[in-house]
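Data card: per-record layout.
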Amino acid sequence: MDLAEKTTLPQIVCERIKLYIVEHELKAGDKLPSMNQLIDMLKVSRSVVREALKTLETLGVLRIKSGGGIFLDVPSFKPFMDQVSFQWKHNEQRIKELIATRRVLELCAIEMAIEHYDPHLLDQLELANKQMELSITKRKLPVEEDLAFHRALFKATGNQTFFELSDVVSEFFNQVRERHFVDVKNTITSFEEHKQIVEQIRKKNVDEAKAIMKKHLLVLDMLIPDNTDQ
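The structure for this 230-residue chain is written out next.
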C-alpha cells in the first residue's frame, strides 16, 4: 500500500479546505462557507466534512461557533503544545530539552528587545512587574503575573512569531511557578530580578541583563524529575 492509499477522505478534505483558505487569502476572523456549502463544493458526505472540520478546529486552524458559522482562527502553536505537553511532563529528557529551550528563548528575547527597543513595550514589562508586586502585598501566588512579565518580554522583541512560540513554551512551566512562589522569599527575589532585568534592558546592557536572567531561570531545574522517586 503506497502513501496515497493511506490518505483518508477526511484528510483530503482538510487539505482542500486549507487550499481554499490560501486561494481566497482569508485572514484570522474571516468566515468560511457553511457546512452545507462545503458539502456542495467538495462533493462529499456531511460526516466527512464534519470530521475534517473537527480536525482543523483541534489543530487551531478553524473556530466553529454553534449556529454562528465557521471562522479562520488566529494562528498559534498552542494547540500543538496542548496535544503533546501531557506526555512531555513525564519524560525527563523532554523536560531537560524544554528547560534548555526556554533558557535560549529568554536570553534571545533580551537581545531582541534591546535591538528592537520600544519604550512602550518596555513600559508593559514594568507594569507586569508592578502587578506582581501588588500580588505579593496581598499574599497571593503571582503565577499569572510572572507569566505576564515573561510574555511582555517576548512581546518586546517586536517579533510576533517568536512571541507565539515562546508563549506556549513558557506556559508549560506554570506548575514550577506555583511550587516556587509558595516561599515568599522566592517571590520577592523573582520580583527584584525582574526589576533588574528591565533596568539593564533600558540601559541596553545585554551582558548584564542576560546574566541576571540566567540566575533567574535556575528555578527551572526544580522541574527535572528526581530519579530517586522512580
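Known properties of this structure: Confidence is low (pLDDT under 50) at residues 1-5. The two ends are 42 Å apart (CA to CA).

See the next section for split statistics.
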